[in-house]
């Protein structure tokens, strides 16, 4: 008997249709049976329940449609609670809180080099180099003016001037050869000023380069979605993440009926990035060898409350009973142990604490 045909071992009278879709670690197939956090939760709350039910697989959009038109009674796969869905679907107490994030392919060394040069404006680089050479010349000239009469290391016309420039460059880079050093009071004052100025200057240049290389990631850290409007980004059709992207005026979105279709699209380079629920993407990275060359960006957006969903026509007492059982179980240590088993607590995801 397939998973989709599986029924509870009780009377088939008033059998409930329980829908699910594949989204590990919450619901997935394991050796021809269902497994995952949400499925384990469903088994727990119906352990002593005499109501008959049958499991049916549905893609996310079909699952939501089935709940709305009452052809599906309950969805055990977690659905994000939104105001729009609440108009046609009822929800249990939320049992998990998470965020959406973005998964992209890791940059190769060659791509990182290319990104380095493309992220730096040639004109700005020339201006920085020009300003740097000007400062080297100013302080090199100053130390030469003070030193050329009393310090043989800086004596002579052009030769002494070049020695001043050499000393200025060595001092700025903190190389410290010691082959040339000022001996007059005026020369040492110039040297002291230049030492502190050079430290600040080098630090500023380094910070500027670092900023130019990480600006795209910093935009995401501030939940600025503007960068990803320029590339092809995929998500699951009718998901809360798709709704968020559409609300931010995305035009280059590709939506897929299932999570597996979304992953295949990224693997085959049909899209540049995935925006979807963090736990699912995290699970994929750690359990699917095909995605070892991918990574999650260090960003979080679109907070989501995960819950089971009910048809509006499902018996009210039944919905209240199941919802209370969910709340009671999520307060127990067994629930925290289950989350730990699937490494959701270790990654410091936001766990709903109802105590």
What is the CA–CA distance across the termini? 41 Å
Average per-residue pLDDT, rounded, comes to: 81
How helical, in percent, are the residues? 40-55%
Run of helices and strands? EEEHEHEHEEHHHHEHEHEHEEHH
Q: Spans with pLDDT under 50 lasting ≥5 residues?
A: 4-13, 215-223, 346-355
The CATH architecture of the largest domain would be: 3-Layer(aba) Sandwich
The helix/strand class is: alpha/beta
- Quickly count the domains: 3
| Assembly type | single chain
Count up the helices: 12
Q: What is the makeup of the main sheet? A: 10 strands, mixed
User: What Rg is obtained from the alpha carbons, in whole angstroms?
Assistant: 32 Å
Strand content: 15-25%
Top-tier CATH class of the largest domain = Alpha Beta
The count of β-strands is 12
Q: What's the CATH superfamily of the largest domain, by name?
A: Periplasmic binding protein-like II
Gross morphology is: elongated
CATH topology (level 3) name of the largest domain: D-Maltodextrin-Binding Protein, domain 2
Provide a descriptive summary of the structure in words.
By secondary structure, the protein is an alpha/beta fold. The chain folds into three domains: 3-95 and 307-341, Periplasmic binding protein-like II (D-Maltodextrin-Binding Protein, domain 2, 3-Layer(aba) Sandwich); 114-221, Helix Hairpins (Orthogonal Bundle), CATH 1.10.287; 223-296, D-Maltodextrin-Binding Protein, domain 2, CATH 3.40.190.10. The chain contains twelve helices and twelve strands. The protein has helices at 37-45, 60-68, 83-86, 109-118, 122-147, 158-172, 185-221, 240-247, 259-267, 278-287, 316-330, 333-341, and strands at 16-20, 28-30, 33-35, 53-57, 74-80, 89-91, 96-105, 233-236, 253-256, 273-277, 294-296, 301-311. Helix 1 packs across helix 11 (316-330), helix 5 (122-147) crosses helix 6 (158-172) and helix 5 (122-147) packs antiparallel against helix 7 (185-221). Mean pLDDT is 81; it is low at 4-13, 215-223 and 346-355.
